[in-house]
Amino acid sequence: MLSILKRYLIGKPLKTTELGEQKLSNTKALAILSSDALSSVAYGPEQILIVLATVGAVAYWYSIPIGIGVLILLLALILSYRQIIYSYPHGGGAYVVSKQNLGVIPGLVAGGSLLVDYILTVAVSVSAGTDAITSAIPILHSHTVFISVLLVIFITILNLRGLTESASILAYPVYLFVVALVIIIVVGLFNVITGHGPQVTHASSGPIPGGIALFLLLKAFSSGCSALTGVEAISNAIPNFKEPSERNAAKTLTMMGLILAVLFSGIMFLAYWYSITPNAEETVMSQLGSEIFGRNIIYYFIQGTTALILVLAANTGFSAFPLLAYNLASDKFMPRMYLLRGDRLGYSNGIITLGVASILLIIAFQGKTEQLIPLYAVGVFIPFTLSQTGMVIKWLREKPANWFPKLITNLIGALISALVSIIFLTTKFSQVWSILIFLPIIVYLFLRIRSHYEAVGDQLRLNNDIPDKIKGNIMIVPVAGITKVVERTMQYAQGIADEVYAVYISFDKESEQQMRDKWEAWNPNVKLIVVHSEYREITRPLLKVIDQMETKAHENGFEITVLIPQFITKKNWHNVLHNQSSLLLRAYLLHKRSVIVTTVPYRFKV
User: Fold this and answer.
1) Other residues' Cβ atoms within 10 Å of the Cβ of residue 199
2) Calpha distance 129→151 (Å, rounded)
3) φ/ψ of residue 327, rounded to 5
4) Which has fewest Cβ within 10 Å: 30, 62, 441, 606?
5) What angle do CA 194, 196, 202 make, to 5 degrees?
């Protein structure tokens, strides 16, 4: 039944040869890898205005130069990540760039930051989308957490079905959101040009008022930079593109940058011109839509697509997290299970891990993940800074053709990204201090995992030592009675072993003697060892027998094999009707050194 449910939800398995069909076209890749970045237009301009609002409406004019600063950083990031795509066409983004140019620890800091950031992306985006849904339908407000969890499960299942299928479904809401914002920008600018807009209520330009410090402007700038989260996702997901993958990835990144720049600058300008004031009851996007269109069908179309894009921004995390985990696992910094492709050729373990972690985060914060947004943003700018610094080192070391303009581009991006990171850490320390704790812990875990794999590799590696030849095999067969299962097991043991011993654990003297008599009459050729267990244990008495046998085995160059009889029921639920002592015994013995554990199954017909 579980298999049928899995096939229904995820679909039939795909052949490895069908991998090429799962690659993304530029149109689909733009939708699923840019959803996080594009969705930030819905709240990036608002974050700037919220900071400026602490001074008053007179400060709103500074949203324009701050917005220009954000666009300059966006340009630097787009140019930088284009260079990263061509320099590192196998993906990995900030992690690979930092590891190869700055060292292992900076690479792990970048990789760990992005892994956590993708988890935060899913939790924050889905929670924001759920808030939009519950705002429209207040009766659902008490079910916020449940709705958020359902949405994460839905997106997880969609991604488990494969890249092309999820992209085909999720592309429509993303492009509808772009269309909605283009409509609001075009109509809003038309009203401004033709004089149908508000008749001068916006603040005019002028010197910085005494109440506005440079520190506050920098804080507003860093808040606006939250609109740039998700820019790096394409560089992590290059292998998902159709060939030539790096060229298609670069084109998609450029297109994303252009769309993001147009939408961000348009909303930023209109918010200033229409004198939009942020408030807790209504978002900036909602106020703009209401001012320009009124509360009509176009307004609700804009609000609906905004809610959808906020939820689907989570898909960027589902596209990039598994590939980043793959790169870390390839370098032995994460478990090897993240290297495996699932039935639908996606990295299913990475997708499931991201879904579970996001659900736990949503439950822990009861769906109120707004306080995680600063942590979410600083978690992006640390990798931004490290990756661009790494590219600066790369150009200085290699000095290829036309390297100096590339160096300047990356240097500017690195300096601005570092400045934003510092501003975040200083102005919002109370919200982002935890990153100073969990990042070192994550890096330590990465190093411990790598250390484990290296130790295992050393033990598994062949050397010139000639192992001792196995001269024979001693079989120990635990028995609970004389049945067909035991009969089959004894036949198998006597056919391959040099010495066979049956071990019976008795709980009382009467059953002990009865077993001796039955065994002697049934199979006198195999020695029966009877051990009395006062405390009704099975494993400890059996281990005592094994310990006694080990001395004899080592002297003769023999191996010890514990052969466990086990019957297999025809229906799974029948297992509940039988004790599973054989499973427990096998699990226990597998951790016993110098003991081989083998199971002889006996299948029931009914």
Assistant:
1) 6
2) 9
3) -65, -40
4) 606
5) 105
